[in-house]
Amino acid sequence: MSTSKQVLIVDDEAPIREMIAVALEMAGYQCSEADNAQTAHAMIVDRQPDMILLDWMMPNMSGIELARRLRKDETTAAIPIIMLTAKGEEENKVKGLEAGVDDYITKPFSPRELVARLKAVLRRATPKGVEDPVAVDGLMLDPVSHRVTSNDKPIDLGPTEFRLLQFFMTHQDRAYSRGQLLDMVWGGNVYVEERTVDVHIRRLRKALGKQHDYLVQTVRGTGYRFSAQIA
Amino acid sequence: MSTSKQVLIVDDEAPIREMIAVALEMAGYQCSEADNAQTAHAMIVDRQPDMILLDWMMPNMSGIELARRLRKDETTAAIPIIMLTAKGEEENKVKGLEAGVDDYITKPFSPRELVARLKAVLRRATPKGVEDPVAVDGLMLDPVSHRVTSNDKPIDLGPTEFRLLQFFMTHQDRAYSRGQLLDMVWGGNVYVEERTVDVHIRRLRKALGKQHDYLVQTVRGTGYRFSAQIA
DNA sequence: CTTTTATATGACATAATTGTTACACGCTAT
DNA sequence: ATAGCGTGTAACAATTATGTCATATAAAAG
Prior knowledge:
Chains A, B: Residues 6-122 form the Response regulatory domain. Chains A, B: Residues 131-228 bind DNA. Chains A, B: Residues 131-228 form the OmpR/PhoB-type domain. Chains A, B: Keywords: Activator, Cytoplasm, DNA-binding, Phosphate transport, Phosphoprotein, Transcription, Transcription regulation, Transport, Two-component regulatory system. 2 copies of one chain form a homodimer. Chain A is of the alpha/beta class. Chain A folds into 2 domains: 6-125, Response regulator (Rossmann fold, 3-Layer(aba) Sandwich), CATH 3.40.50; 134-226, Winged helix-like DNA-binding domain superfamily/Winged helix DNA-binding domain (Arc Repressor Mutant, subunit A). Helices cover 41% and strands 22% of the residues of chain A. The first copy, chain A, has 8 helices and 12 strands. The first copy, chain A, has helices spanning 14-26, 37-47, 63-72, 92-98, 111-125, 159-169, 178-186, 195-212; strands at 6-10, 30-34, 51-55, 81-86, 103-107, 134-136, 139-142, 147-150, 153-155, 175-177, 216-219, 223-226. In chain A, helix 4 (92-98) links the parallel strand 4 and strand 5. The longest helix of chain A has 18 residues, at 195-212. Chain A is elongated and about 65 Å long. The structure holds a DNA duplex (30 and 30 nucleotides).
């Protein structure tokens, strides 16, 4: 899971937080915890988690109050929220949804259910935009069908090579260091050797074949560049 | 009711969306929701719903603006739209109809009325051949008779496999993640494991047999794609 | 023409993803 | 109830992808 999501758990009862955290971590998420709305708010503004699990009933500021506040702030408005509530508080569901909550789980719930709904919400929260195909020489990459063709002949690439090529084709004529490529293509927070980039470059070139491997150019002492100009 | 229709509900007020969604789901429709015109537009282009319920008044882009935009785009022009509007906005009715809206309901309305008019619109609109048979290679799916044939030999599919195939055949050459497939084929509000998709893919492939199983292609690291192009 | 440094390449072990089968549960109709 | 079907999950197998070496080549530097 290279792009593991940050989940903030807000609940005043420590055992519950623990339980949730364990479940989520087993599912590959990274968790932070807060035991009240105040510190939660601070943490959210500061760390911008990908998702918030928010208990309904808490001392001082209630969960819903926090939700409202987050929705008003532009920098936090888009973060999906799942409300946790005790059985029998169903009437509050409408209020919750009014406050912009994305989903709603009543305690007690199974870890499995929690993870499932969390996934569903995350899925929905990221509407995938429509991307246009890019082409150079006779090489075309279509993000929609997720296909690459060299003069109409299909080329098959591993996921990483695909992302690498996609990045290159949308950032042509510019040299990137291995470090930059790791950031952009692999995603910032993975630790892999820079040499790994070389290997994937090699794999990409191989897949492109004689016809198009010239597009991937090495910039000695710096990194690599994708360009149609034979430098 | 295995040929359930996808309805997108666009309204900025969550409780209203909820209410509508519940009503429609009880009537056998599958619902997605959007709370603003922007994301609605993205979802429409992406998922091509069978029907759109569109609130008149919304922040940023108004419903009518979205309607106009959809009508201009060839890929979305045929999707029927029902406008929701508050009482006393009757004057806008003309504008709405000018913009290509198919019907018009004033709030408040009963769920029963909504469903009735939705059915009526769907019946007479029958958007660009959603009810027409589709065929690829020698594989044909006829939504009306609810039949699938491979070179005129009948294939029998379970309900889910049928919907999956139908979705694929009407959305060819696009890679879909398991999550997206769950949203589109299973319906937005179910919480099932993503791996379940794999199993149904398998069942579908098996049913298609050697003759046509190549149409269902796996896009490693992403999901699946239905295409006649071998790759 | 060496030496030094940087990149290319092929091979591997391991990790991640997908395919496949089996099974249990809930429905429906008998 | 019972039998049959459709579904979702779990478990295991098969396949593919990834990162890291070790080594070969190639380009600059001396």
